[in-house]
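Session log. Operator J.P. requested a structure for one protein chain; no other inputs attached. Running the standard single-chain path with C-alpha cell output.
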Amino acid sequence: MTNEMQKSEPMASETNKRRKNASLDRRKARAGWLFILPFVIGFVIIYLPMVVESIRFSFSDIQMGSGTFTTTFVGFQNYNKALFEDPSFAQVLVKGLQRLAFDIPAIIIFSLFMAIMLNQKMVGRGVFRAIFFIPVILSTGIMESISAMDILGEYMESSEGIDTGSGTNAATQLVSSMDLQRLFSNMKVGTEIVEYVTTAINNIYDIVNRSGVQMLIFLSGLQSISPAIYESCKIDGATAWETFWKITFPMITPMILVNAVYTVIDSFTSESNSVMSYISGVYSTADGSEISAAMSWIYFMIVIAIVAVVAAVVSAFVFYQRKSE
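Structure written below.
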C-alpha cells in the first residue's frame, strides 16, 4: 500500500505540472490575441471590405456615371489584358522579381554581419546600434518620398554633376566590374558573382536603409544564445570560424526565416518598388481601375508564392532549440 502511494505521488505532481504549463500557455495565447485585437478589428472593418472590392473590380468592367459607377463581370479578361496586351507590365514584373531576388540575400547577409559586429563587447555599442536603426525611422513619410525621388543621384548623373571626363558619368558608382575583376584575377570567381558584388556595393545606401529591422531581429537571436555554449566551445579549442558555423549560425536560423519573409514583404510595400509604381501609373489613366486591380492581384499572388517557396526552403534548414521540460 505504501509503495503504491509513493508511485502515485510523482505521477500526481507530473500531472499538476502539465496542467500548470497548459494553463500558462492558454494565458499567453489570450494575451497575444488581446495585443493583436486592435489590428484584427481594424482589418475586418476597414481593410477587408477594400480587399473584397479590389477582387471584384479585377473581374469586372467598370463604367463611370454621374457620381456613381456600375460593374459588369468579365471573368479573366482584365488579367489577360494585363499579362498579354499591356506592352510593359510583364517586363516591369520580371525586373521587379529580379530585384527582389537580389535584395533578399544582400540585406540578410549585411544585417547578419552588422548584428554580429554590434553584438561584440565594445565602447559605444548602444550608439552604433542606434545609428544603424536611424534609417528605419527616417524612411517614413516625407523622408521616404525624398529617398524615392533620388534627388542627389539625379544631380550626380546630370550634366551639372561631377564630370569624370570619360564620356559616361559614373560618379554614382562606388566600384565597377572591372575593379572587382582585377581584384579577383587570381581567384576562380565567375562573372555573375562579380556583377552581384558590384551591384551590392553600388546599392549599399539602399541596403543599409532597409537592414535596420533585420539587424535588430538578428541581435535578439544572438543575445538569446547562452554564453555557456561559447565558453564550452572555447574550452574545447574551437576557432571563431568553427563556433560561428557550428553554434551561432544554426541557432539563428529561425531569425533568418523571419527576416527573409519580412524582407520580401518590405520590398513589396516599398515606395521604390518599380512594379507598384507602374501599377499606380496605370490606375491614374482613363479606364485603368480594373486593369490595375488585376495587375495588383497578379503581383500579390506571385509574391505570396515567393514567400511560400522561401519559407519552405529556409524551414528545411531551421534549427529549433528544445527547451528542457
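Operator note: The longest strand covers residues 60-64.
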